[in-house]
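BUG: 3D viewer hangs when loading the predicted structure for this chain

Environment: internal workstation, default settings.
Expected: structure renders.
Actual: progress bar stalls at 90%.

Input used:
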Amino acid sequence: GRILDVIPIPGHHSQHVAFYDRRTATLLTGDSLYPGRLYVFGAQSQGNWPIYQASVKRLVDFTATKDLCWVLGTHVEMTNTPGIDFPLGAPTHPNERPLQLERKHLLELHQAIQAMGSNPVIEVHDDFIVYPTG
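Structure tokens produced before the viewer hung:
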């Protein structure tokens, strides 16, 4: 009797999907939004940037009419200090930021990547880092 909605969100990866659990009002975003470096592979060279922008907008539009308790990604790369991430490959994460994000973080991501237009850049936020790659 449990219903999960599946939302296609290519950008980080071409087959990426998000899941929305109607019972818990939880949005599972994989590697598209989590407390860490949000890699958009091939953002400049392969044209994945507009695909990622459209996917984040799709999540914003989808959640506009839904209850949303948490946004959960796949892992954590941010410390408890706003805007500070752990070094790449760090074997431990002391003082790790909690995994749970909220809709306000999704809206913040959407606003940031829309403001970049077609010129993506690395941009540090308190709870995530937009990290387009060439």
